[in-house]
Amino acid sequence: MSIPVINLAQMRGWEKSTWATGQTEAEVIRRVGKRIARRARKLTRTGDTIVILAGKGHNGDDARAAKSHLDGRKVKFLELLLPGSDLLKVEMTLREKPALVIDGIFGSGLNRPLAEAWQKIIAAVNGARIPVLAVDVPSGLNAETGETFGAAIEAAVTLTVGAPKIGLLAPAAWPFVGRLEIADDVGLVPCPAKSELHWTLAGDFEHFPPARMVAGHKGSFGHAALVAGSFGFHGAGVLTARGAQRAQPGLVTLFTQSEVFAPVAAQLSAAMVNVWQPETQLPENASAILIGPGLAALKNSEELKSFTRRLWRESKKPLIVDASALDFLAVENFPENTIRVLTPHPGEAARLLQTTTEKIQVNRVQSLRDISKKFGGCWVVLKGSQTLVGRAEGDIFVNSSGNPQLAQGGSGDLLAGFITGLFAQPALQADAQKTLRYAVWQHGAAADKLQAARTNWTIEDLADEIGNTI
Question: Regarding beta strands 49-54 and 74-79, do their DSSP bridges make them parallel or antiparallel, or are they unpaired?
Fold first, then answer.
């Protein structure tokens, strides 16, 4: 079950609801401590030194509670109560180059600018360039707005308690939050708060996609038709096809430009490859269509624009529009009860809304809703850190998987193909939102799996891994 993204008032209300049941703060702190320790052990190796920085508040209590569970690690515990005199001991400890720092100095209760002495401690931690695991919120960060109180810890991982706080998702907070993870099994009652934003969890996809019919055949699982690849961008067509194949539709057909047909076809075996021409007719049995990856060389093609707009207006099959083809669209409606998906990155989103990338990033949720509304209420996958999935109305989901190494050419082409391969399957068209969320989560989870195994993986490696994470 996904988790709502909440504000601090909702978090306080959630805690009060929990204490009203008889659950104690001490027990929740104990459980949080165990979760912190579990994550810290995964970030380190046996024999490594972990430094715990604990302030006087509940964040400090959570960090203290982790101390007894750090089996096999050398633990140095620093209680920070007098910043003026504590700075030296922090600096001396950091010079010993521990493997990890657990940040429990300040929590979400901080509501005033930090004194200079605290800012110096935070600067010392950041300057040491040692990985930091932040407890609930990086110290010094406003969990409501994403701004700092003068300075903030730059965490590698933030393990927030219960549910994501809205400020942790603000682009301004990303350099401090690092990878955001949730400690959601710490003894709190089910979250009573409501929100338009939800945090996707791996458990949301238990038993999804559904099991296939034993007697099914390739005709049962659809036909993905892809229009992708042009001169100088032929690899986009190949990656798109491979992404579609990893979703395992019954058939995949790639339509590419004549000048790149040979190198594209030579790299694909099971996928069929044809030449796209203005008079091209897509297969009658095509059950999902993608247009866009690698078509930059044809961005001024009036025939392709007309082809894309006609499909948008008339086709009753799922249509995914990506990359260069996003610029082909006009503001037109599409048939009722059909699936339309746009997959822009922030720069493409800015072009769609005739604004700047900076303005898109300031309010990603509203940007997604504006794009969807402009193009008839279609689904939108707004890519980037914490990719969003949603449309003009209803819930929006924040993806929890993925890492910065996804920022490689071809990553989006692979995702677009994977989305199309899923939608080609009739069984996965019934819940478009879940299918999109699953595609985005798998894309990121595959990258996380690769990153855990090696640091120099490529998009070709991702093409082999996508769809394989349980």
Answer: parallel
Dmax (CA) for the chain in angstroms is 77
Q: Rounded distance, CA 291 to CA 311, Å? A: 10
Question: Residue type at 186?
Answer: V
Written as one string, the DSSP assignment of 372-411 is: HHHTTS-EEEE-STT-EEE-SSS-EEE-----GGG-STTH
What value does the mean pLDDT take over residues 239-243? Answer: 98
pLDDT tens-digit readout, 39-86: 999 999 999 999 999 999 999 999 999 999 999 999 999 999 999 999
Query: Quick one: which of 186, 160, 233 has its CA closest to 8?
Result: 160
Over the stretch 399-457, which tens digit does the pLDDT of each residue have? 999 999 999 999 999 999 999 999 999 999 999 999 999 999 999 999 999 999 999 99
Question: Distances from the Cα of 69 to the Cαs of 50, 281, 320, in angstroms?
Answer: 12, 63, 48
In terms of Cα–Cα distance, which of 303, 354, 356, 357 is closest to 325? 303
Q: What per-residue confidence (pLDDT) applies to 99? A: 98
DSSP string, 138-174: -TTB-TTTS-BSS-----SEEEEESS-BGGGGSGGGH
Give the separation between CA 44 and CA 55, rounded to whole angstroms.
23
| Dihedral (CA of 85, 88, 90, 93) sign | negative
CA distance 231 to 296: 9
169 half-sphere exposure, CB direction, 13 A CA radius: 23
Structure tokens at 378: 């279609």
| pLDDT tens sequence across 318-338 | 999 999 999 999 999 999 999
Nearest to 343 by CA among 323, 359, 360: 323
* Helix runs in 221-331, H state only: 234-246, 261-266, 302-314
295 within 8 A of 270, measured Cβ to Cβ: no
- Asked whether the CA dihedral 285, 290, 296, 298 is positive or negative, the reply is positive
Q: Residue 174 CB: number of other CB atoms within 10 A?
A: 16
Give the Cα separation of 349 and 179 in Å (integer).
24
